[in-house]
Design goal:
- Helix 5 packs antiparallel against helix 8.
- By secondary structure, this protein is α+β, with helices and mostly antiparallel strands.
- The longest helix has 18 residues.
- The two termini are 32 Å apart.
- Strands 5, 6, 7, 8, 9, 10, 11 and 12 form an eight-stranded antiparallel sheet that branches. The protein has an eight-stranded mixed sheet with strand order 29-30-32-31-33-34-35-36, with helices on both faces.
- Helix content is 16%, strand content 37%.
- The chain has nine helices and 36 strands.
- It has a domain of 248 residues: Rossmann fold (3-Layer(aba) Sandwich), CATH 3.40.50.
Length: 584
């Protein structure tokens, strides 16, 4: 999904794997010129343009740890140099730009800080905390009109200085002094900044709240202090992600059980009108300066495309499109504890029961959606049915569902995944004798917990960048992830010893019966190397069948050849241990 500078909308920035590794590219629509900006072995997955479109900015991480710094390069090409020099290398907490102003959030071992540069002067620190602070709008991918108002007079920050990073508060400050202008805090509920009005002098900002249990947009007018909840009459999460250029309407994304719909909401009349598009998942959506809507759409059987309001391609990578896959089937079942759980399953052609892969999403506050996933399609090509469960802890089903894991990790997820497996078997889709569990990040953690807690259920496990020793993991996490863990666990691991004794996989590694393949990033700051290898060592001590795939970057690879190497290792492992499947 391209980004653009407000003053030069035909100058676009995007990232692509055309070169084999994710890199930042720019494209001048007026001239048709398109070029690759970065050429870094780790890969670059974050870019922006300055408001005038004269420079392209990108976040470069030297090792894959995600700690790095911003660089700038002329749009037309030239040498890259550090952007905002003098700011220490660290983890990116967001970027915002307005004419003459740049705000950047950085975290490091000393905590969280916000820096502001005015008129190109060296950046100065305006806020610092030991708890999480980030630039507003960063979660929506906004580098413009997310954190900074259109005229640069106000900067919106999300923070957890009240001690709860799962439920951030919002603070609006003067970016030149750091002085607080206004605050919003919903105890035990999340507030997230989406976007400011694009009209200079307009002090309205969209904030996403969950006071009614589901994500809902509100318009906060700083000029009057008024707060207006937008009642759109839609069930499920609703976000307003952008404004029309004159500030009269909002672009709304409605998530209905893993499938998205776009709408235009007229503020003056409180009227909602749909934007026509095919079913699927909207990865990003923005309103162009001419009022057209661009959005990135994906669904289970088709790779994502970026479209305009007429349904035409906006930008596409060179080369062939991915072949079509099998569709995602929306699916509900009872978890045995009184909850109706939602997810998706994908099945090969023909009649079941099939060998089954229960593929667990990360987060834990992620969501399985109707979206293209080459890994899922690879398992289906092997002959697996794939089950994806939005277990308690997932987003998309309300605040209470998402927060169910607080103080109780590593148990509700297993109940829901296992109930999903049983339901697929009852439907004649899954063969319980050939059941495999797999996932990445938190999905890797749940994979290890399944193998430890339910060793007789699984024929094999695929643990991608997992948490294998929770207590050891905390020591090596980035500051943002440590803050998140404290909120999720109810304290540091040392402060919740009983929870750790029950829900830390390493204490149960001797129970594992199924062979397992473990994939680990050597510079991972989310699920660090040391703790994952500690779990592997427990398997080695008793000569348990396992494989380890190490790769030289962080929480994932941006190199397509490396991703293919990892998948080949996984597929070969499964072919050895699961009867009736084969690599095509």
């Amino acid at each position: 999904m391209p980004g653009w500078g407000r003053g030069a909308p035909d100058r676009l920035v995007f990232w692509s794997t055309e070169s084999g590794v994710y890199q930042v590219h720019v494209w001048d629509r007026a001239s048709g010129e398109r070029r690759r900006v970065t050429d870094h072995p780790v890969g670059v997955l974050s870019g922006a343009l300055t408001p005038d479109g004269e420079r392209v900015l990108f976040w470069q991480d030297e090792t894959g740890s995600e700690a790095g710094q911003w660089y700038a390069e002329p749009f037309a090409g030239g040498a890259a140099e550090p952007f905002l020099p003098g700011i220490a290398r660290g983890w990116n907490q967001g970027l915002a730009q307005a004419p003459g102003l740049v705000a950047a959030g950085i975290s490091d071992a000393d905590g969280f800080a916000v820096y502001v540069s005015v008129d190109g002067e060296p950046a100065k620190e305006i806020r610092r905390s030991t708890e999480s602070i980030s630039i507003g709008g960063a979660d929506h991918g906004r580098d413009d009109l997310g954190g900074l108002s259109a005229d640069g007079s106000m900067l919106a920050l999300e923070h957890s200085e009240h001690g709860d990073s799962m439920h951030p508060a919002v603070r609006v400050v003067d970016p030149r002094t750091g002085a607080t202008i206004a605050e919003q805090l919903d105890e035990g509920m999340a507030l997230n900044v989406s976007c400011w009005s694009p009209v200079p002098g307009d002090q309205r900002v969209v904030v996403i709240h969950e006071r009614e249990g589901e994500e809902r947009p509100a318009v906060w007018d700083l000029s009057t202090g008024s707060w207006t909840d937008l009642d759109l009459g839609l069930s499920g999460p609703v976000e307003a992600v952008d404004w029309w250029p004159d500030g009269s309407a909002l672009l709304v994304v409605h998530n209905d059980e893993g499938r998205d719909r776009l709408h235009r909401y007229e503020l003056a009349t409180d009227s909602l009108s749909p934007i026509e598009h095919a079913a699927g998942s909207v990865g990003a959506a923005r309103v162009r300066p001419d009022g057209d809507v661009w959005f990135r759409l994906s669904r289970g059987e088709h790779a994502p495309v970026t479209l305009d309001g007429a349904g035409a391609d906006v930008v596409r990578a060179d080369g062939e499109r991915a072949p079509a896959g099998r569709p995602f089937n929306s699916w509900h079942f009872d978890n045995g504890e009184g909850d109706r759980v939602h997810g998706f399953y994908v099945a090969p052609e023909g009649e079941g029961p099939f060998p089954v892969m229960m593929f667990v999403h990360g987060g834990p506050t992620g969501q399985d959606v109707d979206s293209w996933d080459p890994e899922v399609q690879a398992y289906v090509d092997m002959g697996f049915a794939v089950g994806m469960v939005n277990y308690r802890g997932s987003t998309g089903y309300g605040r209470a569902w998402r927060d169910r894991l607080i103080g109780d990790i590593g148990a509700p997820e297993l109940v829901d995944v296992n109930a999903g497996l049983a339901d697929l078997a009852a439907r004649g889709i899954a063969d319980l004798e050939r059941a495999v569990v797999g996932g990445w990040s938190w999905g890797g953690y749940i994979t290890l917990m399944e193998l430890c807690k339910h060793p007789d259920m699984w024929l094999a496990g695929v643990a991608g960048v997992p948490v294998g020793d929770y207590e050891l993991s905390y020591e090596d996490l980035s500051p943002e992830l440590q803050a998140y863990d404290r909120a999720l666990l109810g304290g540091t691991p040392d402060e919740v010893p009983e929870l750790m004794r029950e829900r830390n996989p390493i204490y149960f590694a001797d129970r594992v019966k199924a062979p397992v393949i473990v994939l680990i990033g050597e510079n991972d700051s989310r699920c660090p190397l040391r703790q994952a290898m500690a779990f592997v060592e427990k398997l080695r001590e008793r000569n348990h069948p396992h494989e380890v795939v190490l790769f030289g970057t962080g929480h994932g690879s941006y190199d397509i050849d490396e991703e293919v190497r990892q998948m080949r290792s996984i597929l070969a492992f499964l072919e050895r241990y699961v009867p009736g499947v084969s690599v095509p």
